Amino acid sequence: MNPFSLRSGSIETLSIALKTPFITSLGEKKQTVNVSVRLSLAGGATGYGEASGSVVLAAHTPQRMLRELRTLLKKFRGADMSAMATVSRDVWKTAGKTPGAAAAFECALTDAVLRQLRVSPHTWFGGKKRRIETDCTLSADAPERTRIAALRAAKAGFRTLKIKIGKGGGEADFERIRAADALGRVRGKRPALILDGNQKLTVRCALALLKRCRRARFKTVLIEQPLPRDDWKGMARLRKSSPVPVAADESLRSAADAVRLADMDAADVFNVKLAKTGIRETLDIMAVARAAGKSLMIGCMQESALGLTMSAHLALGAGDFSFVDLDSDVLLEDNQPRGAVIRHGRFLSL
Ligand SMILES: [Mg+2]
Predict the structure, then answer these.
(1) Is 338 exposed, middle or buried, given 0-12, 13-18 or 19+ CB atoms closer than 10 A?
(2) In sequence order, what E strands does 6-86 have?
(3) Residue range 260-311, pLDDT digits in tens
(4) Torsion angle of the four alpha carbons 7, 62, 328, 335, in this order, in degrees rounded to the nearest 10
(5) CA-based angle 105:111:113, to the nearest 5?
(6) Which residues keep their CB under 5 angstroms from ion ligand 1?
(7) Which ranges of the chain have pLDDT less than 50?
(8) What separation in Å is there between the alpha carbon of 178 and the centre of ligand 1?
(9) Distance from the CA of 160 to the center of ligand 1, in angstroms?
(10) Full-prediction pTM beyond 0.85?
């Protein structure tokens, strides 16, 4: 018997309510419907992966992810999982048009194989850190509700707030940022602010907003994907004149994108997410970033604490992320499944 052959698997949907509706420039969400996959190897080890559903992306409806995961399970049942790189490549060839599903399956198979080998993913990724600090994300909400959210985050000890912008125009964005700055102070200290435009700004709007933030003495540390995904030239132009580093998120969906971003000098920070590119491709992106002298950020979708586990292993194990945006467990209600991730306010450990 080959202990690494895939014996069985189970796929489930998982509905978890958000503590407060999550609003971005793209839409609003009161609950997340995620799809989880558990894979069992003949040797007894099991692995877990989870894909977060989206109301915006057609490729990430729970129905489609369920379908893709069932296809993957059927295809790989009985197959040898030990050649993780080869299997992962096959998984992405089969289900790459639904990145969430492919990533969940890849996480589950990697988790299972490493458990079978009795190696922790944290160690496998480099074993660097024991604890990391995360930000807390605030919706693109009305200023009044942003105040409440910022105050709640400050009370929980968060010192970096990520604010969704690009909704309601520059004035609404500024008011939201101002509310976060004023109410998000911990022991009188201004919070560090990450502004996430989700592709909804122009170069001119982004620069005007950053200028206003600077005049108001906000501690803006990063602007994330203000421009449309394909506006590579715009990103490069913005990066040159921006007073704060520019991060690529939606523009970064493969290692090839990373090479292009580096070539065009179109971002200072590369935001990776296992949900976007899985494990193998993410490691390739990280290698490109390091070689090109770019900084790294790690983000998530709306995975449960259990679904965040592999991202936490990567963030802690690799240990070289300048920005850690792994906070979906904070935004979801407490009845979510828990894994090895331990949260103490703004800190994550395993
Ligand atoms: Mg983003």
Answers:
(1) middle
(2) 6-24, 27-41, 46-52
(3) 999 999 999 999 999 999 999 999 999 999 999 999 999 999 999 999 999 9
(4) -80
(5) 100
(6) 196, 249
(7) none
(8) 20
(9) 15
(10) yes
Q: What's the CA-to-centroid distance between 40 and ligand 1, angstroms? A: 33
Return d(Cα 198, Cα 27) in angstroms, integer.
11
Q: What is the pLDDT of residue 59?
A: 74
What gap in Å lies between CA 228 and CA 255, rounded to an integer? Answer: 19
Q: Is residue 273 annotated as a catalytic residue, yes or no?
A: yes
C-alpha 131/C-alpha 95 separation (Å) is 33
Determine the 3-state secondary structure of 49 from DSSP. strand
CA of 217 to the centre of ligand 1 (A): 24
3-state secondary structure of 124: helix
CA distance 189 to 286: 32
Q: How far does residue 270's CA lie from ligand 1's centre (Å)?
A: 11
User: Would residue 211 show up in a list of annotated catalytic residues for this protein?
Assistant: no
pLDDT score recorded for residue 145: 87
Instruction: List, as own/partner pairs, every contact residues 235-242 make where C-beta atoms lie below 8 angstroms and the sequence separation is at least 24, other chains included.
Output: 235/261, 235/264, 235/266, 235/267, 236/264, 236/265, 236/266, 237/203, 238/203, 238/206, 238/207, 239/265, 239/266, 239/267, 239/268, 240/265, 241/207, 242/206, 242/207, 242/210
Q: What is the pLDDT of residue 22?
A: 85
User: Which two tokens mark 117?
Assistant: 């080998």
Q: Which helix (H) or strand (E) holds 347?
A: strand 347-349
Query: Residue 218 burial (CB < 10 Å; 0-12/13-18/19+)?
Result: buried
Q: Residues 29, 167, 200, 273: which is the catalytic one?
A: 273
Catalytic-role residue among 164, 167, 276, 294: 164
Distance 139 CA to ligand 1 centre (A): 12
**What is the four-CA torsion angle of 198, 204, 209, 213, rounded to 10 degrees?**
120
- What are the tokens at 28? 């609003």
